[in-house]
Design goal:
The protein is mainly β and 120 residues long. Helices cover 0% and strands 49% of the residues. The strands form 2 sheets. Strands 2, 4, 5, 6, 9, 10 and 11 form a 7-stranded mixed β-sheet that branches. A 4-stranded antiparallel β-sheet has the order 1-3-8-7, with no helix packed on it.
């Protein structure tokens, strides 16, 4: 089993919504800070959002997705989510989930990625 596994990607029209999920098989999941990254075609990978360990009360989202994307976690389900609303064509890319024990932004473990395609 892989440590992290993303799901929920797909194709959506601009203005639509998607909710990405990242299921973790990590032990002591609550001790890991979590993050979402994305890589658009022809672009460098960028950090989208982070959430701190534990109850995850401290969150940060990139300015490019502020007020549109929300990161959250459910430690009982060992899952982190990325709710994406008002999607734009520029949001198209491969979205990766990552976990970090002591490094920040989290980057110790990576998922395989899930494709998000937003069409006009």
């Amino acid at each position: 089993q892989v440590p992290l596994s993303e799901s929920g990607g797909g194709s959506v029209q601009a203005g639509g919504s998607l909710r990405l999920s990242c299921a973790a098989s990590l032990t002591s999941f609550s001790m890991y800070a979590m993050a979402w990254y994305r890589q658009a075609p022809g672009m460098q990978r960028e950090l989208v959002a982070t959430i701190t360990k534990g109850s995850g009360t401290n969150v940060n989202v990139a300015d490019s997705v502020k007020d549109r994307f929300t990161i959250s976690r459910d430690n009982a389900k060992k899952t982190v989510y990325l709710q994406m609303n008002s999607l734009k064509v520029e949001d198209t890319g491969v979205y990766y989930c990552a976990a970090g024990w002591a490094v920040f932004p989290p980057s110790d473990y990576w998922g395989q990625g899930t494709q998000v395609t937003v069409s006009a």
